[in-house]
Prior knowledge:
This protein is of the alpha/beta class. The chain has two domains: 18-209, Type I PLP-dependent aspartate aminotransferase-like (Major domain) (Aspartate Aminotransferase, domain 2), CATH 3.40.640.10; 283-405, Aspartate Aminotransferase, domain 1, CATH 3.90.1150. It contains 15 helices and 13 strands. The protein has a seven-stranded mixed beta sheet with strand order 1-9-8-5-4-2-3, sandwiched between helices. Strands 7-6-11 form a three-stranded antiparallel beta sheet, with no helix packed on it. It has a three-stranded antiparallel beta sheet with strand order 10-12-13. Helix 2 packs parallel to helix 11 (272-281), helix 3 (52-63) crosses helix 7 and helix 5 (107-116) packs parallel to helix 6.
Amino acid sequence: MSFTREIPPTAGLPIKTRNLIAPLFMKLPKGSLEEDFKKYLNIPTALLTYSGTAAFYLILESIKKLSNKKTVIISTFVCPLIPLAIKRAGLKIILCDINQDNFDFDLNKLQEICAKNKDILAILTVHLAGIPLELENIKKITKENNIFIIEDCAQSLGAQYQNKKTGTIGEFSFFSLGRGKGLTIYEGGLAVTSLPEHGPLLEKTAKEIMPTNILSENLKIIELFAYSLFYQPALFWFAFRLPQEFWRMCNNPIRAMGEYFKVDFPMHKVSAFRAYIGHLNFPNLDKEIAKQREKVNFYLKGLKDLLAIKPITELPHSKASYPYLTIIFATAEKRDSALNIFKNSGLGISQVYLRAITDYAYLKEIVPEADCTHARLLAEKTITLSSSTFLNNADLSSIVQQLKQL
């Protein structure tokens, strides 16, 4: 096991500590990061929030004022924070399984659910791994049934679907600026809408549910400084792998993977300082995404002849941001062998989610039972390959060669 070089499992943008010093002594503009998002996405409204989850919750609390419907459809392979936000908003959940070999909804099941249930308020479309979902057919379903589309763009900032950036296709969308999520301010998010008439609603709801918390925000600034120090291969082991190993020793794989959350997630405002740091790094976004795509293309070229491995890739009419590449093994045993081989390599090999969303014990009172056959198979048979900026060609070649040998 190496303590001297650990690659992050996702492609988060590094932040230099020296770039954090000067803004501490400046009078900072308000709304700069929100303006960056509005220009980048060509949308009328973007609101900075404490986290991507907070942004999702803000959207839910807003659209409750537009409809009496109370149910949200989510996929069976999704971050555990999603059902917690829906629960906190006082709404109900219906699950729809994904396809066998990608993250898209099983369209037939989605159509069946929407045809049978007239209480559907929204469908959450999650662009997992930076890969845009096939939205055209989903839009047809939502138009027929008067349902909102909420895009979960936590991992897909900069991705495109039919020449439109993710976050601009549904009525509402949210992004994450959490650590490891590409553009980051350590913890943060944005709630956006592409429709001018819904902007005032988001703003009004934000004033109602987003207080100021100076103590908590100062703690986030300290953590942002820590991120700038530890988010590098020489020190990342101590910030990431060490806590993982602790929880594994405690026989708690869910906490080891950072997949345990609570329903009382923070909702307070983000300081002008952290927003300005995001603004300073925004110009690097597209350049970093291009690098991520180059690394993923390297993987795809090297693995193309391996019949026992199937990568989950972008659709022909989309362009993924690829913060990591997900590959599916033919069997769970082969997947486990791969995890074992790379366990102490420091090369950023990881997993998307450990479970289908129905299989997290602490969510049993929130998430209803449902068919999640395909989600369980993905959880059992996939690993992720990092596209971190810290990976070099030797690292990429090593990963490909070891997969070939396996």
